[in-house]
Design brief:
single chain; alpha/beta; Undecaprenyl pyrophosphate synthetase; six-stranded parallel β-sheet; 8 helices; 6 strands; about 40% helix; globular; binds 3-methylbut-3-enyl trihydrogen diphosphate; binds magnesium ion
């Protein structure tokens, strides 16, 4: 017997994006340092990725560090870079083993050289995979991504269409996110996928990211399955829900 609606063939998002917010507050509540929250958050991120692929999702984008987060105290950033140094390669290898292409999106040149090397090596190992993907947004800002794409077009002297512009973004060639989940109680996008989110369904959870469980992800996907995506049309035109 199916455990939940998802296994009964409800509409599944192809691409889920996740704003992983609340690590710091989660740790603070437990009288632990913020770095402890980030460690738990990274472990949860891997668990959720595995679960999402098991459910049949094809693309997952996670917001791990924004351009604006680079203004955080040096110790916190150092702790985040150490997490990448100590765990990223192994964790990503585990998730990507199921045929998933890894892309790191954002201005990674702002990261320490050794961290950049780890990211490059991990991505290279997955280059052969097509059809399923993980985007890890690091030093990512959507406005910066848009300006970067626009500048590429200017340099090429290209007149843009929506399609050709999309292709110049870091997510070029991938479907837009269908579902964007933000944990941590805040109801905002914080400069994440502004262009790509045009028709995404937005789901906000009060849970802090380290406590966002596999079941919580299922609930968000079930909620997604109940949305009517009209893309500007009427219900009658869609021929459903008359
Ligand atoms: C999100 O958690 C992870 C990063 C931005 C690196 P936060 O670190 O923003 O946690 P809160 O919002 O302070 O609780
Ligand atoms: C958004 O979280 C960025 C990430 C989750 C990486 P923030 O904690 O930086 O967002 P704001 O500053 O509260 O909007
Ligand atoms: Mg936050």
């Amino acid at each position: 017997m199916p455990r939940h609606k998802i296994t009964e063939g409800a509409k599944l998002p192809k691409h889920v994006a996740l704003i992983m917010d609340g690590n710091g507050r989660w740790a603070k509540k437990r009288l632990m340092p913020r770095s402890f929250g980030h460690k738990k958050g990274m472990e949860r991120m891997i668990g959720l990725m595995e679960h999402a692929f098991d459910l049949g999702v094809d693309y997952i984008t996670v917001y791990a560090l924004s351009t604006e987060n680079l203004k955080r105290p040096k110790e916190e950033l150092g702790g985040l870079f150490d997490l990448i140094r100590n765990h990223f390669a192994e964790y990503m290898e585990r998730v990507c083993a199921r045929g998933v292409r890894l892309r790191v999106i954002g201005d990674t040149s702002l990261l320490p050289d050794d961290v950049q090397e780890i990211l490059t090596t991990s991505q290279a190992k997955t280059e052969k995979y097509v059809g399923k993907g993980i985007n890890v947004a690091l030093c990512y800002g959507s406005r910066a991504e848009i300006v970067r794409a626009a500048n590429i077009a200017v340099e090429r002297g290209e007149k843009l269409t929506e399609e050709s512009f999309s292709a110049l973004l870091y997510t070029g060639g991938q479907p837009d996110p269908d579902l964007i989940i933000r944990t941590g109680k805040e109801v905002r996008l914080s400069n994440f996928l502004l262009w790509q989110a045009a028709y995404a369904e937005l789901y906000f959870s009060d849970k802090m990211f380290p406590e966002f469980s596999d079941r919580d992800l299922e609930k968000a996907i079930e909620w997604y399955g109940e949305r009517v995506r009209r893309f500007g049309k009427t219900d009658e035109q869609l021929g459903e829900r008359l």
